[in-house]
Amino acid sequence: MLEKYFKNFSEKVAIPFIKICIYLKIKPNMLSVAGLIVIIIGSYYFLILNKTYGIFYIFLGSAIDGLDGPLARTLNTQSDKGALIDSTIDRVGEMIIWSVICIKYVNSEIELFTVISIVTASGLIPYLRAKGETLKIDNKLGLTPRPERVIFAVLYMYFDFSFNFVYSFALLTWFTVFQRFYKLYISVE
After folding, report:
1. Residue 180 sits in which domain range?
2. Domain count within the chain
3. What is the pLDDT along the chain (189 residues), one digit of tens a residue?
4. How far is CA 84 from CA 1, 126, 158, in A?
């Protein structure tokens, strides 16, 4: 959802960073891996040390990871392997962030179940988008694509909101799964 409104702006902001990457001969897959490492560092900070550093590093890691696509397009090096690496790293990074919530913020079995359901939906959402792409169907519907899930998780950890927000967010993630599934279901024979 945010992508629809900020994609053009973010790609313009990325231009100087793309130029630096080209100058330093950094490849798109290197950015994906670097972004994951920074997200892991941020998650560690959230878990053990300092929320402020945690939020900074997770957002920085997400921004670094967000440069891989524009860099690949600029270099004209887009590939199925690169897309596979990026998508896999995105899932791993998101799982690590939600794992911190499980470890540090979950106090009951129902809360644990809720977070696991969000992680499950977080895997299904990009799967249904990718499945749509194989069928030549654009399937980016929903309120909770990856940027929104990461932003919600980080803000939840930083501000230590009531777990009721997580319950509500779980419903939104599953609503996104339903939207994407339904679009594919009615589009195929």
Report:
1. 2-187
2. 1
3. 556 666 667 777 778 889 998 999 999 999 999 999 999 999 999 888 788 999 999 999 988 988 888 899 999 998 889 888 988 999 999 999 999 999 999 999 999 999 999 999 999 999 999 999 999 999 988 888 888 888 899 899 888 889 999 999 999 999 999 999 999 999 987
4. 22, 12, 31
CB neighbours of residue 69 within 10 Å? 18
In Å, how far are 9, 137, 141, 142, 169 from 4, measured between CA atoms? 10, 17, 10, 11, 20
CATH number at residue 149: 1.20.120.1760
This prediction's pTM:
0.84
Catalytic residues: 90
C-beta atoms surrounding 148 within 10 Å: 18
